[in-house]
Design a protein that fits this description.
Blueprint (H helix, E strand, L loop, with lengths): L2 E5 L8 H16 L3 E5 L12 E4 L8 H11 L4 E2 L2 H7 L2 H10 L7 E2 L8 H11 L3 E4 L9 E4 L2 H11 L7 E4 L5 E8 L2 E9 L8 E4 L2 E4 L1 E4 L7 H14 L3 E9 L2 E9 L14 H10 L14 E2 L7 E3 L4 E2 L10 E2 L3
Helix pairs in contact: 5-6
Length: about 325
């Protein structure tokens, strides 16, 4: 019998769906002969006494979840999400560069720096990547600070707002689709699949529309109904980040696939697991069986360079970080 900690916070307990998911996780652990206890931020000193830790609160390198993950890692306690995955997935530039390094298909993407953001540069981006463009603030989550710009004026207004929080932003070509595939990946293996049906009022899975939050619909999809290339791409994208638990968002447009994001701490409270009743048992088994546990520290960038130009990836040519142009946000993956 092992002792599993489930790290939660006040936000985790803010809805009945989240509470239900937590109880399912606890019940799964107990049905496997383990004990499960909820760990709140004030209980963080209890982590060294656990055998495994499953973080179910919004992760960020600047909040208590990262501290909890680091404590577990320092004590050799298997943890989801591990510190490296939190760091990578909480910074979209870092995350996209890991996908680029593996030459995985993503929308055409650039990372302009603060000093590059001028109307002439924005106009050139529209000519190169098309209209509209999607702008993202690198630390965003849950579709916050992800917006579309259809002209230079909109671009400048959004970019200046995002640049109050970051020295760089992400700019991507717009890939239209009525839904995103979400592929759950655990330790480099397929875990579950669902569709996030995008609300008609927006292009994101979650948005504020006229002062009201609208959410995507969630359709759990059995594995035999998921195209194999979608599953394969999800697995490869997850492995590009590490060996933990990830939710990979994929769009399909005009016969091409694009990885939109890789998320650590993927949601499991929206019905994602309807067709996969063993999801929590597999996660807990992975955590408790230490011989299967692998940290992702080997995927950590050894250093980040400051401004040097711009980085890009063109899926049509498979060109990654073109050598003819300097890099705006370069990560050295060699240790």
């Amino acid at each position: 019998m092992s002792r599993l900690g489930i790290f939660v916070n006040r936000q985790t307990l803010s809805s009945s769906e989240q509470l239900t998911a937590l109880i399912k996780c606890r019940d799964a652990a107990e049905s496997m002969g383990h004990t499960a206890e909820f760990i709140f931020p004030v209980d963080i000193n209890r982590i060294p006494k656990l055998d495994a830790l499953f973080i179910r609160a919004n992760t960020d390198p600047m909040n208590a979840t990262y501290v909890a993950s680091r404590i577990a890692s320092l004590y050799g306690i298997p943890v989801i999400d591990d510190p490296a995955s939190i760091q990578i997935c909480s910074d979209k530039i870092n995350m996209y560069l890991h996908l680029m390094k593996k030459k995985l298909p993503i929308p055409r993407t650039v990372f302009p720096s603060k000093r590059e953001i001028v109307p002439e540069y924005a106009r050139a981006l529209f000519e190169r990547l098309g209209t509209p463009l999607v702008l993202k603030e690198p630390s965003t989550s849950f579709s916050a600070r992800v917006e579309k710009a259809s002209n230079v004026q909109e671009f400048m207004r959004i970019a200046k707002r995002f640049l109050r929080l970051s020295d760089w932003i992400v700019v991507q070509e717009y890939v239209p689709s009525s839904f995103d595939w979400r592929i759950g990946v655990l330790n480099g293996e397929f875990l579950y699949a669902c569709r996030y049906v995008i609300p008609a009022q927006t292009f994101k899975i979650q948005a504020s529309v006229n002062g009201h939050l609208v959410y995507c619909g969630v359709e759990s999809v059995p594995p035999e109904e998921v195209p194999s290339e979608i599953i394969d791409l999800g697995i490869e994208a997850g492995k590009a980040i590490g060996r933990g638990l990830y939710g990979v968002d994929i769009k399909e447009s005009n016969g091409s696939l694009y990885v939109i994001e890789v998320n650590d701490n993927p949601s499991l409270d929206g019905g994602e697991d309807v067709c996969y009743p063993d999801v929590y048992r597999r996660i807990i088994s992975y955590l408790i069986n230490g011989d299967q546990y692998a940290d992702t520290l080997s995927y950590m960038p050894s250093r980040m360079d400051s401004y040097m130009g711009e980085a890009r990836f063109d899926p049509s040519t498979q060109n990654v970080l073109g050598s003819e142009e300097p890099l705006a946000y370069r990560i050295d993956f060699e240790r």
